[in-house]
Amino acid sequence: MRYAPEPEHRHGRAARTGVLLVNLGTPDAPTAPAVRRYLAQFLSDPRVVEIPAALWKPILHGIILRVRPAKSAAKYASIWTPEGSPLAVWTRHQAAGLQRLADAAGEALTVRHAMRYGQPSIASELDALKAEGCERILVVPMYPQYSGTTTASVMDDVHRWQLTQRALPEIRWVRQHHDEPAYIDALAARVRDHWAREGRGDHLLLSFHGVPERTLHLGDPYHCQCHKTRRLLAERLGLTADQISLSFQSRFGKAKWLEPYTEPTLQALAKKGVRHLQVFCPGFAADCLETLEEIAIEGRQVFLTAGGQRFDHIPCLNDHPAWIAALQAVVRRHCAGWPLHAEELPRAAELEAQRQQALALGAKR
């Protein structure tokens, strides 16, 4: 069968609006086999690795997937929580928080979450939204700054799911929110909360996930959007150029990636005399391996070894109330024109029934 079976139609049920939050993904467990499955899916995505498959697959399966899973599993184990992977935990909390706000506002939204790589999959959650009567779905990639390596890959997977459907829901998606005022407000609130508890450091470093430099020259807007986020956050916090800087982390392979790199930046700041450094990762909506292990553990060691005296990792937005409110603002803006409130749904259903009746009459004539 070319198309998946449709969920049973319920006459008289008003169509709902679904919201799908999509994050990058995580292994199911901090073990080598689980990490291998995750990396195999992640690193097989041509959006992530733009090397011809004939050249890349022997390297991936012959070297990387034999060596890297055990090392990565040990790192995941160092940050794993009783609830599971931090990324999975925080993404669940974000979806639940957004659902609570929607319910409190009387908005007929169904909020679910998915992972681009791993579980729950995008396809399974889109199926679930359809089964719950959602004929309008807003897809929210949880990447504030757009990149072909992240946001575009989410939409590739959404489009693959659409090819399996007979009755397609109306789909919208959020391309980016790097300069959304509510997002900048949420970042500022997170930093100020940390300052209130721990004091203000000598310098604030914003570390974003890195991508190959060639993507910038090929037209990817990620680099520019990271810099805009830095500028807007600096303005909101009242920081001067010498009080806040930007770097890119998580290099992979030998190709040149976006600069400046985070590790050399940590060393340079310590040698320049910064004693109390605070590092924040605005490009990550939720704490994960890259923030909790690469920054909070490895980055701390790099800075202190280079002569720094105090290192603070400022948590990601996670389920901070200002961030959940920002998500609500983003969703409302992108759902403009869709009936969201309960009292609007019967009227929308009535208008659709009238339209169908008019079409039937026209056909008889």
Automatic annotation (TrEMBL):
It comes from Sphaerotilus uruguayifluvii. The gene is hemH. GO terms for molecular function: lyase activity. Pathway: Porphyrin-containing compound metabolism; protoheme biosynthesis; protoheme from protoporphyrin-IX: step 1/1. It is found in: Cytoplasm. It is an enzyme of class 4 (lyase). Its main location: cytoplasm. Keywords: Cytoplasm, Heme biosynthesis, Iron, Lyase, Metal-binding, Porphyrin biosynthesis. Fe(2+) binds at H209, E290. InterPro entries: Ferrochelatase, Ferrochelatase_AS, Ferrochelatase_C, Ferrochelatase_N. It catalyses: Fe-coproporphyrin III + 2 H(+) = coproporphyrin III + Fe(2+); heme b + 2 H(+) = protoporphyrin IX + Fe(2+). SUPFAM superfamilies: Chelatase. Catalyzes the ferrous insertion into protoporphyrin IX. Belongs to the ferrochelatase family. Its EC number is 4.98.1.1. This is Ferrochelatase.
